From TrEMBL, chain A:
Key words of the record: Ribonucleoprotein, Ribosomal protein
The name this protein goes by in its record: Ribosomal protein S8
The organism of origin for this protein: Serendipita vermifera MAFF 305830
UniProt family annotation: Belongs to the universal ribosomal protein uS8 family.
Family annotation (Gene3D superfamilies): 3.30.1370.30, 3.30.1490.10
Domain of life the protein comes from: Eukaryota
Gene Ontology cellular-component annotations: ribonucleoprotein complex; ribosome
InterPro entries: Ribosomal_uS8, Ribosomal_uS8_sf
GO molecular function: structural constituent of ribosome
Pfam name, any one: Ribosomal_S8
GO BP of this protein: translation
From TrEMBL, chain B:
Protein name, as recorded: S5 DRBM domain-containing protein
Record carries keyword Lipoprotein: no
Any one GO cellular component localisation term in the record: ribonucleoprotein complex
Source organism of this protein record: Serendipita vermifera MAFF 305830
Family indicated by similarity: Belongs to the universal ribosomal protein uS5 family.
Transmembrane annotation, as ranges: none
Length: 158, 271
């Protein structure tokens, strides 16, 4: 279920509040987006857990048996008192869904606008794309170009 | 004071230490340098200062009437300069804004000159300074010294342009700057042009929205071009409050981003 606003707001606000960890609801999409952030170096680790805290064992036991109580915890990164991630925002919105093919994703990776309103990716900025491919469902924008896959552009982070 | 001029930093740097005698001292017959002839002369001078002898016959502030030496308590520009002369001579200086400002005092209007200067070495160092004095050349000198004290590093891509688009706001002045390819040039507002020239930025396109007040454009650019070193929201680290110029994170170069993420940024030139 595309809900990239929720995770974008949680992570951005957590970084700005200088939190050590942040918990997001446990869904496939959230796990995938956080994995891409982990690969890009914005967060330092991911842990499954519950609302109480990060704990893989609690994830499977009494509280964790309720899907609504499960969470993914991410450890946030700071350097020189500055957060590593300053902005994270959703691109595709319920009021205006943004689907881009490979050429359009390539455009935003190379400094040009695409789909009218999607600004190009700046240096160090990443975007998460949700494709129709079974093996590579969620990809970073440049990975999607390399694999020749297009899809819905969910969010951007820098 | 004279011992300082002869043997202090100014002398080391070869500053000119000849003193100009003020008009008032010549008027009163005190032409020898240094102390007053008698304590009575000193007391009379102090009395003149306290009694308001600085007001001339037209009930206006007489800026040229000074009972003491002209530069008795202020260092000369050469002494106030904190950089060695061989460095200062290589710096570009652009006095971009010069305004005649007036302070309305009890005894009438007191005009003075305000100057804003941007200094830079064209290789990544740039600073801005403001100076005020009753005489324009001295105000320019003061602002250049303040600019030299404010010099800081600008991280540039290929030593010629920005790393990413910059959108910043200072008051009602919104400045948008974009990196551009080699040979593009500085296609921007004249104030931004001079700031970039001093900093060593060669290719840029920029647009100013809202207010086009020169002072605010220059300050907006400088706040965002320089990365800054103070931790945000921590002032200067030793108890003073943070200034407006320290707000935000500034521009971060590729090396900084790679270090903070612990990942190489792949060469993303997709062909």
């Amino acid at each position: 279920m595309p809900r990239a606003h929720d995770i974008s707001a949680r992570i951005q606000n957590a970084f700005r509040a200088r939190l050590a960890q942040v918990a997001v609801p446990h869904t496939t999409q959230n796990l995938a987006i956080l994995s891409i952030l982990l690969q890009s170096g914005f967060v330092s680790s991911l842990t499954r857990g519950t609302v109480a805290g990060p704990s893989p064992t609690a994830f499977d036991t009494c509280m964790g048996k309720l899907e609504s109580k499960r969470r993914i915890w991410a450890d946030l990164k700071y350097r020189d008192d500055r957060p590593v991630l300053t902005n994270m925002a959703a691109i595709s919105k319920p009021s205006n869904r943004i689907y881009m093919d490979v050429d359009e994703i390539k455009r935003i990776c190379t400094g040009r606008r695409a789909a009218w309103i999607v600004r190009p990716l700046q240096m160090g900025e990443i975007a998460v794309v949700r494709t129709r491919s079974k093996e590579n469902r969620f990809l970073e924008a440049r990975e999607a170009v390399r694999l020749g896959l297009g899809g819905e552009v969910l969010c951007r982070a820098r | 004071m004279d011992a300082l001029r002869q043997s202090g930093t100014a002398a080391e740097w070869g500053a000119d230490d000849s003193q100009a005698t003020s008009r008032s001292r010549r008027r009163r017959g005190q032409v020898d340098d240094g102390q007053y002839e008698t304590p009575l002369d000193e007391a009379l001078d102090l009395q003149a200062w306290n009694s308001g002898d600085l007001v001339n016959d037209f009930e206006q502030w007489d800026q040229h009437a000074t009972p003491l030496e002209e530069t008795s308590s202020l260092p000369s520009p050469a002494e106030a300069q904190t950089l060695p002369p061989n460095v200062v001579s290589t710096l570009m200086r652009f006095p971009l804004i010069s305004k005649r400002v007036v302070q309305q005092g009890g005894k009438g209007r007191m005009p003075s000159w305000y100057v804003l200067t941007v200094a830079g070495n064209g290789q990544g160092l740039v600073g801005v300074g403001e100076g005020k004095d009753t005489e324009n050349p001295r105000a320019i000198e003061k602002s250049f010294i303040a600019a030299c004290k404010d010099l800081d590093w600008v991280d540039r891509f290929e030593d010629r342009t920005l790393w990413n688009e910059i959108d910043t706001k200072w008051g009602s002045t919104r400045v948008l700057m974009r990196p551009r390819p080699m040979g593009f040039g500085l296609r921007c507002n004249p104030f931004i042009h001079q700031v970039c020239k001093a900093a060593g930025i060669k290719d840029i396109s920029a647009k100013v929205y809202g207010s086009r007040n020169g002072m605010n454009i220059i300050k907006a650019c400088l706040r965002v071009l320089r990365g800054g070193h103070a931790p945000p929201m921590m002032g200067d680290g030793v108890g003073r409050k943070g200034t407006r110029m320290d707000k935000g994170y500034g521009m971060r170069g590729r090396e900084n981003i790679e270090r903070e993420r612990g990942r190489w940024l792949a060469d993303n030139r997709l062909r």
